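Hi support team,

I'm opening this ticket because the web form for multi-chain structure prediction keeps timing out on my end. I have pasted the exact lines I submitted so you can reproduce it. The total is 342 residues across two entries, so I didn't expect it to be a heavy job. Is there a limit I'm missing, or should I split the entries? Thanks in advance, R.K.
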Amino acid sequence: MTKLLEWVFGVSVIGAAWALVTFDLLNLRLPVAYKEVAWPMPVYLLVVFGCYSLATVGYRVATFNDCEEASKELQDQIKEAKEDLRKKGLKM
Amino acid sequence: MASRKGSHQSRGNGDKYSVLLPTYNERENLPLIVWLLVKYFGESGYNYEIIVIDDGSPDGTLEVAEQLQKIYGEDKILLRPRAKKLGLGTAYIHGIKHATGNYVFIMDADLSHHPKFIPEFIEKQREGGYDLVSGTRYRGDGGVYGWDLRRKLISRGANYVTQVLLRPGASDLTGSFRLYKKEVLESLVERCVSKGYVFQMEMIVRARQGNYTVGEVPISFVDRVYGESKLGGNEIVSFLKGLLTLFATT
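Hello R.K., no limit was hit. The queue was backed up. Here is the completed structure from your submission:
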């Protein structure tokens, strides 16, 4: 199954469950409280997911390692390499 | 295998590592990356060869490669040039054809990937018997030098979207510093159809599909050319298109 199909399947199952409870499709006569809680769930979950995404990406950007030493080490090694290659006869 | 100077024993268990270096206008960087590869492979004692795949660079990269061949030997530096700039996937296919190693490294020739991580890749691969080991900028002490906030935001944002949609089981999908078992690389390259960033993503996604095991090594990515190769709107759009294609087809 492709990822797209997995999503379509997952959303369909959740969507069906939501519709079942919110609109009482099977005439289960569930307490009103269930319907009141279920009804805004899709929007609520989207908002929660949106906030989680922003927080996660924000955290990852803030903690993205800056490799200062790696750059300095590279600069030093470039000098060393150029010297050594010159000695070995490389014409640059 | 001949023993080497110093206390390092030759890791003579028959493994050989072929490093594929596709180049285009890397006249300045090629000698430096080769020097670093020779240094770190030499110190670690692993058997290796470097395969330079130059796509007809107008700046004379091939001539520099020939000089390097004279300095380091034709058994260590192999030249497999092509007439013009063709894709990365075909460069790998072309390079593998004459590779005598049973493992293959792929990496950038512009010094953004540092050969000092090569022993770590090899040890990681041996530790878990992985089919492929991917260098990651996003985990452990991996990281980047030379990126501004905008670039970091785009990078992390794109990676997050990719993780949500594809759940690939690897933290850095667009990275191109990797170690593959040769037969795994051959098998994957044939199946991949995308270009650019998405090609590297597709390789990992297809690896997971094929039940290949993937290990990770944190690496530092030193971006020295970011002034020239800005990440523009076009690239972002084609990345998203590629991502959605993978989402719908894998």
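A quick check on our side: The radius of gyration of chain A is 29 Å. Let us know if the file doesn't open in your viewer.
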